[in-house]
Amino acid sequence: MGARGSRLSLFTFLTVILCLNIRAADDKIFLDDNGLVVVEMEDVPLVGSWTLETNNPCEDKGRPVYGDGWLQAGPGNDYGCNNNDIMTYPIKVSRAGTYSFKFRVHKSKHAECGAFDACNDACVYWEENDLDYSHPSKTLGKASCWAYKGNREHDGSIVVDLEANRVYHLNIQRRSQYFAIDRFVLYTSDRSSDATADGNDAPCRTPVEINGEVVDPPCGVGTTANAGVRRPARTIGSLSSEPPRYYSVTGARVEKPAQVSSPTLLIGVSETGVRRIANFR
User: Fold this and answer.
1) Bridge partners of 40?
2) 87-107 pLDDT, tens per residue?
3) Which residues lie below 8 Å from residue 260, measured CB to CB, with a gap of 6+?
4) Least enclosed by CB within 10 Å: which of 2, 39, 201, 205?
5) Helices in the chain by DSSP H: which ranges?
6) How far does the chain reach from its first CA to its final CA, in angstroms?
7) pTM above the 0.85 mark?
8) CA distances (Å), 60 to each of 92, 192, 253, in order?
């Protein structure tokens, strides 16, 4: 094949890739803890005009900020959700079921947010077309201080059926300027009270899969990002048909079945010796 033919083949290949919209492998995937997914908004790279803020505009109300801060949408409204300020969160659950979405938000105190319907919404949708709510739509977040909201303006709560061990992509896109989001949760009906608990009872970040390894991130609840240890009790290994997995602080896998009945640290043994298991629930 001549040089011209090679160039045409490469062009054809790239055209097919672009048309198919093939997504690159996800470096970080957010996992569930027995039907509950807790994600801090800042746990993926910032996109477009979103900014990370570390102050707490609701401190006088006794409402804490979780994780390392909260995200604020940039200036300018985009009521058609046509901009590229799309924050994408890969999600994979081990427990199949019906999951509801809520984000922890507040109406910005910015000078341009005085109107009752200003600065209080985003576009939230699933990227997978076989799910309900797979098109951008205004998702309401009107709260004077941090609170869990998430109804879409015209079709109610975002509730989807998720398969086990399939990677989905949840998109949160700027719509109203200066809208503030701290974290979001996905949960099955039996985990609703855990998902939206606040203060000392707030749930920690749930595990993440990073380049194929499952790790427990810093809790994100407490006076600092690492302070909280409050997690629902559970029995490891009884959550699904998959073998239980245990990981050390360094991410090394540990083969040591154990039962956890309260927040604790576990000791496991791997080929390289004893490892401490951090932040198990």
Assistant:
1) 183
2) 999 999 999 999 999 999 987
3) 233, 234, 235, 236, 266, 280, 281
4) 2
5) 3-20, 192-195
6) 60
7) no
8) 36, 27, 43
Report pLDDT digits (tens) over 213-236: 999 999 998 744 433 334 443 333
Tell me phi and psi for residue 20, to 5 degrees. -80, -15
What phi and psi values does residue 201 have, to the nearest 5 degrees?
-95, 5
Q: Which residue from 75, 79, 76, 68 is spatially nearest to 44, judged by alpha carbons?
A: 68
3-state SS, residue 12? helix
- Amino acid at residue number 101: F
